[in-house]
Amino acid sequence: MIQNKIAFVAWGLGLLVSCSTPQSPVEEAVPETIQPIKELSTATIYTTARGTDLRLTQTGTKTFGPGEQPLETQISVFVNPDKTFQELVGIGGAVTDASAEVFAGLSADKQEELLSAYYSQEGIGYSLLRTTIHSSDFGSGSYTYIEEGDTALATFSIEHDRAYRLPMIKRAITEAGGSLLTYVSPWSPPAFMKTTGRMLQGGSLLPEFAPAWARYYAKFIKAYEAEEVPIWGLTIQNEPMATQTWESCIYTAEQERDFLKNHLGPTLASEGLGDKNIIVWDHNRDLITQRANTIFGDPEAAKYAWGIGFHWYETWTGSEPNFENLRRVKESYPDKQLMFTEGCNEKFDPAKYQYWPNAERYGKSMINDFNRGTAGWTDWNILLDDKGGPNHVGNFCFAPIHADSQTGDLIYTPSYYYIGHFSKYIKPGAKRVSTVASRTSLMATTFVNEDGSYATVVMNETDEAIDYQCFVGTQVIEASIPARAIQTLRY
Asked: Where does the chain cross the membrane (predicted)?
């Protein structure tokens, strides 16, 4: 693999760069300025394209030359390394009970292949992991860590997770080099703590159980850390405005604010866990601004919140993805971070393993989310079986990789490679760089890694190949992207 490193020079060289997104999101208000880079030499291009064998394949090396004023008839991507924005915390996916159960059924060599595919640099280099606090829909059954009715949490035990989930998470951490930023999310409090008396199908937390439920998070975090799984942070509630057929719990914005302010925040602090990063909302982009206004607008609640999480499922209403709402939140609360906490392609159908629009949904979301200020991006299940599960309520979905129960083989979908165009080349600590495209036929984003290497991701969602220029300051390369393709340019 060729990697061109970029050296830095003294003041006085200012450069421009080019690359962008179809909806050209507005940049954050006060970009940082980085030291200018010296004259570039080459860019290495990696491509994944529909109807070809290209899958994160090196497809060329282009030499930078002096750029001239582009014409309106030319398609250009402009990268400006003098302007940088949010810092990346990581890119990854979720290890659910479902993923861990399927993983346990793989042969030893396929387990190694799966871990390497996600967590090694020979694979796509995941650096972020989400897991659940007791059960979600993705697993063989519903459960908690205490006996029903145990308000004192005296019976609390994570023994259930030692069978499948903890071993897989520990191996993922090892494969990732010993460090993997991990955060956790609950789908529902135990049944006796809720208005409905059941974990499934919504309901709300009974106020009298708020102190016990807050202590439950602390017990979980301490139990996982005792197993040498460091917990970076947590979300308060998965999808708090959805009454689902599976584990779910409703919080209005005011209820979540008050639980954070009066219970969860103070409890974690008193338990010595005040350094854990708390993420609010953890639901779709459509209502994210109202949730941010309610919680971040209250200083006593906001002081406990690292940021706000979001999913991509607002399209169930017939809406297009509400990317602009992210920019509005970042614009209003620049000190709070945006985290994509979940997304997957719904309605599993084995005939659609190689269905290209599923992958393009990832590319479009990642480019647009990052260009609106998102600091971390987390896919849902990293592995499912050939039925789209296991899922104890039949909510079968796609994952980037599936296991064939008949052959024991792993099935790689195009989504795996689209995510890899980001996660393989953009690392924690990287900063987003100002990037714009001159036409809506291309989408693009750029990050500069801590070692000074740049990665510009360009996506073509059209049915025609596109020739384009990528300007980096006053220098330029000529490139071409196939129809229905994504590219990463490294320089």
From this structure: none
Q: Which CATH superfamily is domain 90-428 in?
A: Glycosidases (3.20.20.80)
Residue 149 tokens read as 């009715």
Q: Out of 175, 342, 360, 461, which one is annotated catalytic?
A: 342
Identify the sign of the CA torsion 463, 469, 473, 475.
Answer: positive
Residue with tokens 């600091």: 375
pLDDT of residue 6: 31
293: CB partners within 8 A, 6+ apart = 253, 332
What distance in Å separates the CA atoms of residue 329 and residue 323, rounded to the nearest whole number? 11
Does 42-86+434-490 carry CATH code 1.20.1080.10?
no
pLDDT at 3 over 60: no
Task: Return the ∠ at Cα 219 (arms to 214 and 220), rounded to 5°.
Answer: 100
CA distance 128 to 426: 12
Cα dihedral 328, 274, 173, 453 sign: positive
Taking all residues of the chain, what is their mean pLDDT, rounded to a whole number?
93
H-run or E-run covering 331: helix 323-332
Tokens of 431: 């900063």
3-state DSSP assignment of residue 253: helix
Q: Where are the domains of the chain?
A: 42-86+434-490, 90-428
Task: Please give the Cα distance from 453 to 478 (Å, whole number).
Answer: 19
How far apart CA 260 and CA 176 sit, in angstroms, is: 32
Nearest to 93 by CA among 349, 453, 398: 398
In 3D space, the residue among 446, 286, 430, 458 whose CA is nearest the CA of residue 363 turns out to be 458
The sign of the CA dihedral 329, 330, 336, 339 is positive
Q: Which amino acid is at 38?
A: K
Collapsing DSSP to helix, strand or coil, 240 comes out as coil
pTM for the whole structure: 0.92
Q: Of the listed 28, 239, 256, 314, which one is catalytic?
A: 239
Segment among 15-29, 443-457, 467-481 with least mean pLDDT: 15-29
Catalytic site includes residue 342: yes
> How far apart, in whole angstroms, are the C-alpha atoms of residue 63 and residue 40?
8
Q: Is 464 a catalytic residue?
A: no
pLDDT at residue number 8: 28
* 3 state DSSP class of 184: strand
The single residue listed with the structure tokens 């490193």 is 5
Tens-digit pLDDT profile for residues 229-244: 999 999 999 999 999 9
In whole angstroms, what is the distance from residue 341 CA to residue 362 CA? 13
Left if phi > 0, otherwise alpha if psi is -120 to 50, otherwise beta: which for 409? beta
- d(Cα 340, Cα 366) in Å, to the nearest integer? 9
Cα gap 351→463, rounded to integer Å:
22
